[in-house]
Amino acid sequence: MDTCESRAGKMDTCESRAGTMDTCENRAGTMDTFESRAGTINNCESRASKMDTCESRAGKMDTCESRAGTINTCESRAGTMDTCESRAGKMDTCESRAGTIYSCESRAGKMDTCESRAGTMDTCESKVGTMNTCESRAGTMDTCESRAGTMDTCESRTGKIDTCESRAGKIDTCESRAGIMDICESRAGRMDTCESRAGRMDTCESRAGTVDTCESRAGIMDICKSRAGRMDICESSAGTVDTCESKAGRINICESRSGRMDICESRAGKMSTCESRAGKMSTCESRAGKMSICKSRAGTMDKCESRAGIMDICESRAGRMDICESRAGTMDTCESRAGTVDTCESRAGIMDICKSRAGRMDICESRAGTMDTCESKAGRINICESRSGRMDICESRAGKMSTCESIAGKMSTCESIAGKMSTCESIAGKMSTCEIRAGKMSICKSIAGKMDTCESRAGKMDICESRAGTMDTCKSRAGKMDICESRAGKMDMCENRASTMGICESRASKVCVCKPH
């Protein structure tokens, strides 16, 4: 999934290149959460400043901590980025002896200079704007010049991005002869043209909307044309999505001959028709709602029929989703009489019962699946209870998500009283408590620091406890990282019983000693 979502900031991102998830999430600042290029998750979390911590001893990025600026320190002895230190600006210095980025110095602007003789990025100079010049002779990004806008020019002869020019918008031109993105031109909108001859995205042209045209001959997305809406046409001859046409709505037609989604047609709503010959979703037709068919008479989703896919039948008479029946797939039954989702019953799938009386989602009960109970009294999601699934309880009193408790799932407790995500048990910081007994992340408790406790009994990360420092304890019995304990320094101990990292013990220094265990 290559995803860019924006809540309030400039970019809320989930990107996956090679690893499980490359993610950047923006709640309030420029970049909030985490990025992973090769490993599962290399965490970058921002509580108060824009980016606070990225720690990975075996991944591409080891440590990024920010006390006052955007990025204060990024240290990697063997990874992609070695050192980023910020004194006053957003990024002052990035030095890499063997990694991707050699030097990034900032005197006044957000990013002043990044010099790399052999790495991905050679030079970034900023005099006034966010990024003025990025020059790379052999790396991923060659030149980024900014005259007035956020990014003015990025030129790359052999890298991923060749040219990005911005006169008024955020990105005006990105030209790549051999990289992932070739040309991005913006006249009035955010992104006007992206052309790639050999990369993932070939052409994105925007005359009035957000994305007007994306053409890819060999990549994941071939053509996205937008005349009035956000996305008009996406055609892919060999990729995941073949054709998405939008005349008035966001997505009108998505046709895929060999991908996951074959046809999505929207006449008035957001998504009108989705037909898949061999993918996960077989038929979704919408005449008026967001997703009508998938057989929609009046609501958002009326009918989704899949004989062999994840979702078999979704019928909606009045609500957004009325019935989803799956004999062998993930979701068995979703019935909606008045609300968004009334009943979702799954005998063997991930979601068993979702009942909605008045709100958008009232009750989701799962006996054996991922989500057991979701009750909504006034907010979007009030209670999600899962006895054995990934998410147990989600309670929302006023905000978007108030409480998520999971006894056996990936996220146990996320409580939000006023903000977008309050708890997840937050006493002082943005994230206070996440409990999972069997999932990837078990407990994240924050009493005063940025992240206090992450416990996972069977997942990839078991325990991360922080008393005073950035990260105090990471214990994993079966995952990639077993124990990271920090008493006073940034990271004191990393013990791995069965995985890549043996033992890292440090009481005073920033980087501890790693010994095979």
Quick summary of this structure?
This protein is mainly beta and 517 residues long.
| Average pLDDT over all residues | 39
Helix content: under 10%
Q: How would you characterize the largest beta sheet? A: 11 strands, mixed
Shape: globular
Strand content: 25-35%
Query: Separation of termini?
Result: 35 Å
Oligomer: single chain
Radius of gyration over C-alpha positions, nearest whole angstrom:
24 Å
Number of strands: 44
**Residue ranges: pLDDT <50 for 5 or more in a row?**
1-82, 84-92, 94-102, 104-122, 124-517
Strand order of the largest sheet: 14-16-18-20-22-24-23-21-19-17-15
Helix tally?
A: 0
Structural class: mainly beta
What features would you describe in this structure?
This protein has 517 residues and is mostly beta strands. It contains no helices and 44 strands. Strands 14-16-18-20-22-24-23-21-19-17-15 form an eleven-stranded mixed β-sheet, with no helix packed on it. The protein has a six-stranded antiparallel β-sheet with strand order 39-40-41-42-43-44, with no helix packed on it. Strands 25, 26, 27 and 28 form a four-stranded mixed β-sheet that branches. β6 (63-65) and β7 form a beta hairpin.
Topology:
Blueprint: E1 2-5, E2 12-15, E3 22-24, E4 43-45, E5 53-55, E6 63-65, E7 73-75, E8 83-85, E9 93-95, E10 103-105, E11 113-115, E12 123-125, E13 133-135, E14 154-156, E15 161-164, E16 174-176, E17 181-184, E18 193-196, E19 201-206, E20 213-216, E21 221-226, E22 233-235, E23 243-246, E24 253-255, E25 265-266, E26 273-275, E27 283-286, E28 304-305, E29 313-315, E30 323-325, E31 333-335, E32 343-345, E33 353-355, E34 363-365, E35 373-375, E36 383-385, E37 393-395, E38 403-405, E39 463-465, E40 473-475, E41 483-485, E42 493-495, E43 503-505, E44 513-515
Parallel strand pairs: 14-16, 15-17, 16-18, 17-19, 18-20, 19-21, 20-22, 21-23, 22-24, 25-27
Antiparallel strand pairs: 1-2, 2-3, 4-5, 6-7, 8-9, 10-11, 12-13, 23-24, 26-27, 27-28, 29-30, 31-32, 33-34, 35-36, 37-38, 39-40, 40-41, 41-42, 42-43, 43-44
